[in-house]
Amino acid sequence: MKLIENTLKFIFLIIALTFSESLFSQVHNQSWKNIIHQNKDDWFKTNEAKEIAENVLLYQREIGGWPKNIQMQNPLSEAEKQHLKALKSSTKEITTDNGATIQEMLFLSKMYAQNKDKKYENAFLKGLDYLLAAQYENGGWPQFYPLKKGYYTHITYNDDSMVNILNLLKEIKNNTNFYAIKPADDVLKKIEIAFQKGIDCILKTQYKQNGILTVWCAQHDENTLLPAKARAYELPSLSGAESAEIVMLLMSIENPSKEIVNAVESAVSWFEKVKITGLKEVKTYNEKGRIIDKKMIPDENAPAIWARFSELEDNTPFFCDRDGIKKATLAEIGSERRNGYAWYKTTPQKVLNKYPKWKEKISKSKTVKIKDEYNVTVSKNGKGDYTTIQQAINNSKSFPYKRVTIFIKDGIYYEKVKIHEWNSNITLVGESKEKTIITFDDYFDKINLGRNSTFFTPTLLVEANNVLLKNLTIENAAGEVGQAVALAVSSDEVAVINCNLLGNQDTLYASGKGKQYYKDCYIEGTTDFIFGSATAFFENCQIHSKKDSYITAASTLKESEFGYVFKDCKITSDENVTKVYLGRPWRIYAKTVFINSNLGKHILAVGWHNWSKPEAEKTTFYAEFKNLGDGFHPNERAKWSHQLNDDEAKKYTLKNVLGTFKNSSKKEWYENL
């Protein structure tokens, strides 16, 4: 009896151990997607998870992305591993289609959360770099990157490809801890911009039917932004599937702009208008669980459904076989496409279910009143009076008698900002220079409006008088792609205090007939990065060259006594920069003077360039006084430039250059800052 009892205990023990091991070994019988989403956190500590993670790392290409439709959990032979290593440098078939790249990044994040292995973090961040690099300038993403010829270059909403990317970026930028890996600050900045550009692309691609916003196509042309064709049976149309997930993304955005609200409400109206009731899809399966037939039958109790494809002109549902010919009913197409494709979807019902609470929340936020219209706050998190800078400016009093102060909380504001001529006496003040960032990325070729395209590129344009900008970073993030203005000022009595002005060519356009004051600023660029016709005084600024080229390109008006005056400034450069001119004349009456400034060794001994305009040597006024540093070579300067004497230098005071009451004790405009 004892022997039987011991035998039974042994059998039960073996069964328990076997069952315990099977809890993890069963993972190989799951789909790759289920492994990522259904396994509990503790599983990601197991050896089996680590083995699969090695596969994920092997499949990742050096560019950062992954191919699609790979069951990562399947064991690899040694020959297969060597083959994948050989493919590391290949960029073919790398994509975000069918969840590729996004799902691998999520898996790596979960691995890192449980193991803190640096290789998981590095691979995740490389994937993030891939996603950022793949984005078009217009904010969209192609299906494959590097680009694959054909319809794959279209902006791809199909199978939620772009929405998946934007949801990932949203989770990271909002610091929700959904992803365990935290990028560096410079990458977070790129993520914020990429997300905002992506949302902007969504808003621009929403289709207008007879002037009324509707929804989206599964793919849009990357240039025209219009609905585009993909496979033969995926014709330009309005999508009842992909559009739903787009709207769910838009509704997840905190403190949405009026444009986002309008996009959501328009899409909801369309979903309500085109929903199909009283029709049910019936599927027939074979013994292996494969669909062998689909039919649509009347059923008054059936839940609402939406057609995958609807006509752009009138919303009529249509169906299509591989011959590309539209059919009116599902029954008219062959069994292969009829049974192998999702022609109807219920996803829009999620939108309709969520919409009432979302609408209530938005309505409440609209009822908040501005307490003090002369002192308002902009905050991206919705805890201010406005969420965008332009909203605050547009709602400010025109030509106010009192100064209007717009306090901008730390954040990355991806927007083109314009202070209109009627918004005089206005102040934009950031919470901190380093973290209050206004950025955009327009440039000459992107604007493409002819020879004057440069003047349409500014991130921030000031047309009003009596404006103060303080504690801000103002950036043109287009990169080294030609003319791209960060800040343009064309008005009078404008002060820019403790700001970073970032860009490359043409960073600061200081122009017009007025007077401008730049104090304690950092200004960087490559070519002619301070240019224009204004009378501008730069005090205690750092002027930083990123390339061998020219700092200033003044176009001073003939009648102006002063042009650009730099006093007590530090003239610096990147390490590899060795040949920089202080200035060249954009127009022949250019005036530029450097006083008591420290010139780095990158400044050429000749100092000034005539821009191949010999006549400008007689009309320009380029001068220096008591500069210092390795770049100060007064005896080797261009013969047509000047070294001021003490008496000549006396007139370059702040009051004399910018003042209105030069011979009076009255308080000057810049003394009220």
TrEMBL record:
GO terms for biological process: cell wall modification; pectin catabolic process. GO terms for molecular function: lyase activity; pectinesterase activity. Its EC number is 3.1.1.11. The keyword Thylakoid does not apply. Pathway: Glycan metabolism; pectin degradation; 2-dehydro-3-deoxy-D-gluconate from pectin: step 1/5. Belongs to the pectinesterase family. InterPro entries: Pectate_lyase, Pectin_lyas_fold, Pectin_lyase_fold/virulence, Pectinesterase_Asp_AS, Pectinesterase_cat. The keyword Repeat does not apply. It catalyses: [(1->4)-alpha-D-galacturonosyl methyl ester](n) + n H2O = [(1->4)-alpha-D-galacturonosyl](n) + n methanol + n H(+). Keywords: Aspartyl esterase, Hydrolase, Lyase. This is Pectinesterase. It comes from Polaribacter vadi. GO terms for cellular component: cell outer membrane. The active site is at D528. Residues 375-658 form the Pectinesterase catalytic domain. SUPFAM superfamilies: Family 10 polysaccharide lyase, Pectin lyase-like.
